[in-house]
Specification:
alpha+beta; globular; 5-stranded antiparallel beta sheet; 6 helices; 15 strands; 16% helix; 266 residues
Amino acid sequence: AGSKGAGSKVPSPVDTCCPVNTETWMNFESELFVGKIVCRFKGIGCPANPAAVKTKDDFFKTQKRCTFQVLVQGRFKERVRASEIQTGGEFGKPFQDVPPHYLIKAGCKFFQALTPGLEIDLLCDEPYYMALLGGTVTTLAIDETEDKAVDPRSDVAEDNGRMFGGEGYSVSRRSRTLGNPDTAAEYWYNTTDVYTFDYFQSVLLFDEYCLDIGIVKLRLDRHLNGNPICIMAKHVDGRYVYNFEIFHECLLSKSDQAPPGYGAKT
């Protein structure tokens, strides 16, 4: 998500990894955005340094009732239409062991009918699904200045009035308005306001890298072919707002990003 300046050193693997469950944030800068990210994943610890883990289990049971939260806060570096900024997933290799193609195609058409502007192809060599950021993110908060911005470690509430001329929309109305390309084109992300995009849900378990749908847990590594899930946003012209890949050891045997020598027998 960041970029190197002239003469700067390549960051170490530790410096390029977001802290998880530490109740701290990591600063970053991309082509279109400068800000910070906070990550909380249920079940993730740090055996080498247990004291580093500050997020309590109660957070996932009471405060958010979720299995993960990724919160991004910051400013855009240029004014862009809300209809030009997408979020979703991109994968560099085709999925494997997928259900029958007719089922996948039917499912894609179903979700496209529910989500205006959804772009999705799960059967191509580089699968993807993309929808507008403003209509998809769980919580959107907008503040006038960084001094007035909500603490990204707090329980962020929907506060989108600055997008809509001072009138605060409900989450469902905001999602409909900013999720439809036709209506989203009337609104802008500016370069002065501070935007907080809060992603969280209760189905994806990153400690096991699976989907927990209640009656069964579906292992994702069986289908992802080494591709990591990402939290991302990008301009329709290809420039990234941010892109954070979430890896698990179960992906490494098929990933071209595995450490040198990973899996080699000694």
